[in-house]
Amino acid sequence: MANLLNIKDFVADLIGTGDGSTVVPKRDRLINAARRRFYSVRRWSFLTKNATLTFSSFLASLPADYNNKFDPIIVYSYSGNSKRYFEKVNYDDIESYGESYVYAVDKTNGKIKIPRTDLNATIEYTYLPADAPIDSTQNTTDEPIDDITAIGLLSTGMWYLGARQATGKYQLFNDEYKEELQKAIQSDFNSQAIRKLNPRTNRSNFGYRGRG
């Protein structure tokens, strides 16, 4: 597995700041920014987690590492041995559905809401890896992706974006980043098995008839 130091070494070699293990605050902050941007480009298959949430007054907090750029992949619960999927609805309308299998997300406040008091729910979601501290304490921490080339190129491009008379270098690295990004997307797409879900099977009647 690639680790954070691999990214630092990659960028250090390209911008000439020496050994990546030497802390360079500007470089390391830009690496964090590049990681956030890269890991939020799409629902990467390797950034999927599950969490069972405990609700109080219909509300539960989303996981701390939940990526707010995306909705939950699925929301479900079990009734005996039967897996029941929840359908997403508008937040302001959710109470009109009665005790149905529906949910709504308040990304601003990091909350998920269901109109039920008799069960909890599990969400499958896309998480956002945490920023690394601006020091060397997490240099050996594994990155979620094996090939860190795209993150390294994006970090380098961002470094030159802030440098005077370096727009040409920025464009060069940004173009290379886009090429590597497409390769990573295609590789991730090819690695995913076809997933057959039927979340609509058990939601034929929500008890909602509209407002007018």
Describe this entry's structure for a reader:
- This protein has two domains: 4-40 and 131-191, no CATH class; 45-126.
- The protein contains four helices and eight strands; from the N terminus they run H-H-E-E-E-E-E-E-E-E-H-H.
- The chain has helices spanning 4-15, 25-39, 149-161, 167-191; strands spanning 48-53, 59-61, 74-79, 82-85, 87-88, 102-106, 111-113, 121-126.
- It has a four-stranded antiparallel sheet, with no helix packed on it. It has a four-stranded mixed sheet with strand order 2-7-6-5, with no helix packed on it.
- Quick check: average pLDDT? 90
Number of H- or I-type helical stretches: 4
Number of domains: 2
User: How does the helix and strand content classify structurally?
Assistant: alpha+beta
Strand content: 15-25%
The largest pleated sheet is described as: 4 strands, antiparallel
As residue ranges, the low-confidence spans are 199-212
Distance between the termini: 57 Å
Largest sheet strand order: 1-8-3-4
Q: How would you spell out the order of helices and strands?
A: HHEEEEEEEEHH
Give the proportion of residues in helices.
25-40%
- Rounded Rg: 21 Å
Topology:
Elements: H1 4-15, H2 25-39, E1 48-53, E2 59-61, E3 74-79, E4 82-85, E5 87-88, E6 102-106, E7 111-113, E8 121-126, H3 149-161, H4 167-191
Parallel strand pairs: 5-6
Antiparallel strand pairs: 1-8, 2-7, 3-4, 3-8, 6-7
Helix pairs in contact: 1-3, 2-3, 3-4
Brief rundown of the structure:
31% of the residues lie in helices and 17% in strands. The protein has four helices and eight strands. It has a four-stranded antiparallel beta sheet with strand order 1-8-3-4, with no helix packed on it. Strands 2-7-6-5 form a four-stranded mixed beta sheet, with no helix packed on it.
